[in-house]
Amino acid sequence: MARINLSIPDATKSAMDALETVNWSEVARAAFDREIATATFDGDNMDNVIERLRASKRDLEAKQRDEGLNDGREWAKNAASYSDLKRLAKLWDDIDDGVTHYDEDDETALAARVDARLKRNTKDEGKEASFWFDPSESIYSVPQNVYVLSFLEGASDIWDQVAEKV
User: Fold this and answer.
1) Taking the complete model, does pTM exceed 0.85, yes or no?
2) What's the burial of 25, exposed, middle or buried (CB within 10 Å: 0-12/13-18/19+)?
3) Could you give the CA distance from residue 97 to residue 77 in angstroms, rounded to a whole number?
4) Which residues of 127-158 are buried (b: 16+ CB within 10 A; e: fewer)?
5) How far from the centroid of its chain's Cα atoms is residue 75's Cα?
């Protein structure tokens, strides 16, 4: 794989350094791929369309990974109950160890697993019972698996730091 050097403002570099979990090479690669696909678009050549959409998908998944990891850590630090954090950390461990499986073709399968693990009965109590329901805005948004996996990982990171101390 080829290497390049980039010049960026010092403030940007400082902000990047503060975000330790972000893979900046992947972010840059996806941006380059997206720009190349856009600049070389030929309506008759579907390869360019496919490549542009793949780059867009990589961007979306990278964003969801970063947001999920951060949101999981923030939830664990500021809002989680002991039992909910413990359950989600166990779910992450089970997935990471290959004990728990989910349908990867179902983009929201893990969100339902979280509800089940937290004993949220959405069938009888409705979407308001879901972990993913935001009562402050009355919004029910089921996240995709990549976000949920990262959320679980972030929450589990916090659990691993505090489990023996609580």
Assistant:
1) no
2) exposed
3) 24
4) eeebbbbeeeeeeeebbbbbbbbbbbbbbbbb
5) 14
